[in-house]
Amino acid sequence: MTDTTPHRQALAERLVQEGAVVTPAWRAAVEAVPRELFLHPGVFLPEGGRWRPVSAVGSDPAEWARIAYTYDTLTTQLDGHLTADQASEPVAGLPTSSSTTPALVLGMIESLDVEDGHQVLEIGTGTGYSAALMCHRLGEDNVTTVEVDPEVAARADAALEAAGFSTWTVTGDGLLGHPRRAPYDRVIATCAVRRIPYTWIRQTKPGGIVLATVGSWANGAGLAKVTVNEDGTAEGSIIGRASFMQARAQAAAPVAGDLSARTAYADSERQAKLSPLMLDEWMPAFLAQVAAPGAQLVRATTSEGAQLMYLFDPERESFAEFVADGAGWRVRQGGPVSLWDDVEDTLLAWQGEGSPDITSVRLHITDWGHTYRIGDGAALHWQHRLADPR
């Protein structure tokens, strides 16, 4: 077996140099926890639009160590079931579990501001690597981690045991937290959520912190950090960009079917004031989700090669279709909600305020919903009511 101590030390040094690790205790955790233990039975590497399986067993030890300590996110499962040991050649598929880039993992953990003795709840065990880092720092009895996928949870639990940590690994819906060991000092989610479930707030001590990625678009999610108040509310802000796989219970099914049929009947058509290509940028994409919760961005190409873009909100049965013309973009809208009107008004108001960064967004959470705000005016203020207690 290859000694990966030099790889761990090199990874820790790079994380320190890039500012992802600032606390000596977290550097010590990176240097101590063997990441390769949490990648069994293997990983999928991107190759020509497909995924090349690389299994831990049978690979050259030096090459496996190099892969294990890459700075990139490593995909460990496709389509909710396929692992690298089950494939012998490149395959197509959708990543459903991964070992996230160490820079993001450690940056988030640093943002938790943990102290000795803190009880931490992790939502989304994944490979178990981040749970192992927290076990090293806080002790295994102070870490509870929840994973919805039984097979992923079993592999993570085995890896944690192999690393010497007999922590609380729970299989279940992380959106419900884990009330049995509540209250917690810190809650951290390693999956993205459309909104922070109030159950997490309820299971956190007053003064405790909840850290989670908010947003369902891969290029427009924000890392929310909120502190729980004595009255059961929570408040904080978006502290930066983040990108995680969506919590499975909240993941929206892709819009399918004949898109031309779904957009055949529009209630209105006009010239767009702003280009929908703005939604390729992080902050406009985040604001679009705040202005039109539940909306999905879909791209397509006509048989003649013309570029099409859509916003669909399946729950509210509404759409916006964008068609490029010589003057810019025309938008056709249908359904009870004028999706692009809501998004465009928000983006225009945001531009009017000087296009502030995502870290300008404040967040207030109660048992009835979320309130987002930029500044003190009414133009950049949104309230999202919860349909259920989650």
How would you describe the overall organization of this protein?
25% of the residues lie in helices and 31% in strands. The strands form four sheets. It has a ten-stranded mixed β-sheet. Strands 12-16-15-14-13 form a five-stranded antiparallel β-sheet, with no helix packed on it. The chain has a two-stranded antiparallel ribbon with strand order 1-2. It contains ten helices and 19 strands. It folds into two domains: 5-75 and 98-242, Rossmann fold, CATH 3.40.50; 259-351, Double Stranded RNA Binding Domain (2-Layer Sandwich). It has helices at residues 5-17, 24-32, 61-68, 102-111, 129-138, 150-162, 198-202, 259-262, 282-291, 339-352, and strands spanning 42-47, 50-55, 74-78, 95-99, 120-123, 143-147, 168-171, 184-193, 204-214, 221-228, 234-242, 268-271, 296-301, 307-313, 318-325, 328-334, 362-365, 369-373, 381-385. Strand 15 (318-325) and strand 16 (328-334) form a beta hairpin. With 390 residues, it is of the alpha+beta class.
